[in-house]
């Protein structure tokens, strides 16, 4: 029986250790920093990389330059589609060919849009990240060319609907 009483006492004594430097329970320095404090400036506030800005400007100008050719081809396709006649007729076939020419005239815009994406992706991959200004420049160029692309796609879709394609 005495052994039964001795066992818990031995076990409790094993939990205590002889003195020593105990860790402080006071807050550490890092715990005193308020995480809600706003960041005063971006981590990388440098301006847009000149080479990237020039490349994006060229691509946006390419897309803008292609709009005149597309507008001309789309106008012709719209006129021919308005008087196309029944499907598979000669007028309908001519309107289809004009529609194909309008779709082909979208090439400068679609190429510029894909090149903007590729430029952003390659810069991201080669640098391991993009500075906020570079990212904003890529996004702005993509939005501008994307808006042109959406307008052109809407005109093509309207012509296709008129032709029943």
Number of discrete helical segments: 5
Q: Mind telling me the C-alpha Rg? A: 34 Å
Which structural class do the helices and strands define? mainly alpha
- Average the pLDDT over all residues and give the rounded result: 86
Oligomer: single chain
Report how far apart the termini are.
98 Å
Largest beta-sheet details = none
- DSSP strand tally: 0
CATH architectural label of the domain at 54-163 = Orthogonal Bundle
Strand content: under 5%
List the keywords.
single chain; 165 residues; mainly alpha; Topoisomerase I, Chain A, domain 4
Task: Give a short summary of the structure.
The chain is mainly alpha-helical and 165 residues long. The protein has helices spanning 2-15, 50-82, 90-104, 107-127, 132-163.
Q: In words, what does this structure look like?
A:
Helix 2 (50-82) packs antiparallel against helix 3 and helix 2 runs antiparallel to helix 4. This protein is an all-alpha fold and 165 residues long. The radius of gyration is 34 Å and the shape is elongated. It has a domain at 54-163: Topoisomerase I, Chain A, domain 4 (Orthogonal Bundle). It has five helices and no strands. It has helices at residues 2-15, 50-82, 90-104, 107-127, 132-163.
């Amino acid at each position: 029986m005495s052994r039964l009483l001795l066992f818990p006492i031995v076990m409790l004594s094993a939990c205590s250790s002889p003195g020593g430097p105990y860790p402080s329970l006071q807050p550490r320095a890092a715990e005193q920093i308020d995480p809600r404090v706003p960041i005063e400036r971006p981590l990388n506030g440098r301006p847009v990389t000149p080479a990237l800005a020039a490349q994006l400007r060229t691509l946006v100008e390419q897309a803008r330059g292609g709009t005149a050719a597309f507008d001309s081809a789309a106008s012709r396709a719209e006129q021919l589609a308005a008087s196309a006649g029944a499907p598979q007729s000669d007028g309908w076939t001519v309107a289809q060919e004009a529609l194909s020419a309008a779709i082909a005239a979208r090439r400068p815009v679609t190429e510029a849009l894909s090149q903007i994406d590729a430029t952003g992706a390659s810069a991201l991959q080669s640098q391991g990240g993009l500075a906020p200004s570079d990212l904003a420049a890529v996004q702005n160029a993509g939005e501008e060319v994307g808006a042109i692309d959406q307008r052109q796609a809407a005109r093509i879709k309207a012509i296709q609907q008129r032709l029943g394609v």
